Amino acid sequence: MKNKFVFFGTPKFSKIVLQKLIKAGFKPALVITAPDKPVGRKQKLTPSPVKVLAKKNKIPVLEPERLDNEFINKLRSDSYDFFVVAAYGKLLPPDILETPKKGALNVHPSILPRWRGASPVQHAILSGDKETGSTIMLMDDKLDHGPILAQEKLKIKKGNMAETLSDKLALHGAKLLIETIPKWIKGSLETKEQNHGLATYTKMITREDGRINWHAPAEVLKRKLMAFTPWPGLFTTWNGKRLKILSFETSNKKSFAPGKVIRHSANLTIETGKGTVIIKKIQLEGEKAKSAGEFMRGHSDIIGTMLI
Question: How many CB atoms are located within 10 Å of the residue 133 CB?
Fold first, then answer.
């Protein structure tokens, strides 16, 4: 492809999109990604997945801390036909969006205007949506607000965790993007304004979002587990320590005291606002992850207590 473009992206989702673009012959002239971040207990500085892939493919990389005038001037020092943005992590200001000749394309993992914002995959699962999809849009200076170039739906399979669904949507979105770019460059695509009155919004997921409210129905907690695995995960408090609930099944068994731990048919079971959760895997702060049976053998005193 003769057109010169810049790719903006940071996490695994972006890496998958970039990988597919390169494989299809759409190799960017420059990659913009988030700076290296400290990871793990040792807080080792770690490059983003997109940076690793770009370096492997000998693509120049910029990692601006801020999208300030210094960075904008660097972008303007060369001439680009368009930008592609996929989960970069920052809202691009008008000065950047106006830099390329033909504007900026965004790959968004939802059927806009539903689920604008930072966590569309998690919110689709949390809400029990039966389908989601990919949107290729022209970016403007508002959050996921620009006109649509292409959309395609994708069914959410039962049991899909957020990470699995995100990977599927990255592949799905990349395919749609690769089909869209040549048509857009030729001028054969018409844009479609979003119905802004139907817009729904997501928020940035925080660690505290993983805290369990035991008054919620068991099925809602199951969706929360699917949406928040692996991060931030689900957790509660027992004896002043954080207790991670890593895996469970749900039951319609009548419940009376949300948060109460009971033994039912040899299972470690917790009552909720409606139904119960049957624990499969659990991890107490300071210990390794254990099966429910293994945990009960070491912590039989949990039976009959209330989790908060």
Answer: 22
The total number of residues written for the chain in this structure = 308
Q: How far apart are CA 230 and CA 209, in angstroms?
A: 13
Q: Which residues contact 287 (CB under 8 A, 6 or more apart)?
A: none
**Residue 217 · residue 273 · CB < 8 Å:** yes
The tokens for 103 are 């504007």
Angle at 285 between CA 281 and CA 289, to 5 degrees: 30
Q: Tell me how far apart the alpha carbons of residues 294 and 185 are, in angstroms, rounded to a whole number.
A: 60
Whether the CB-CB separation of 82 and 55 falls below 8 Å is answered with no
- Reduce the secondary structure of 144-165 to three states and give it as a string: CCCCEEEEEEEECCCCCCHHHH
- CA 114/CA 103 separation, integer angstroms: 23
**What are 216-231's pLDDT values in tens digits?**
999 999 999 999 999 9
Distance in angstroms between the alpha carbons of the first and the last residue of the chain = 57
Tokens of 68: 């300030």
Q: In angstroms, rounded to a whole number, what is the distance separating the alpha carbons of residues 17 and 169?
A: 9
Residue 177 falls in which region: left (phi positive, over 0), alpha (psi -120 to 50) or beta: alpha
- Sequence-distant (≥ 6) Cβ neighbours of residue 46 within 8 angstroms: 36, 37, 38, 39
Q: Which of 187, 92, 181 minimizes the C-alpha distance to 144?
A: 92
Query: What is the distance between the alpha carbons of residues 259 and 297, in angstroms, rounded to a whole number?
Result: 20
How deeply is 214 buried, as exposed, middle or buried, from its count of CB atoms within 10 A (0-12, 13-18, 19+)?
buried
Contact between 113 and 200 under an 8 Å Cβ cutoff? The reply is yes
At 69 the three-state DSSP class reads: helix
In tens, the pLDDT along 254-293 reads 999 999 999 988 889 999 999 999 999 999 999 999 999 9
Residue 211 and residue 274: Cα distance in Å, rounded? Answer: 18
Tally of CB atoms within 10 A around 170: 27
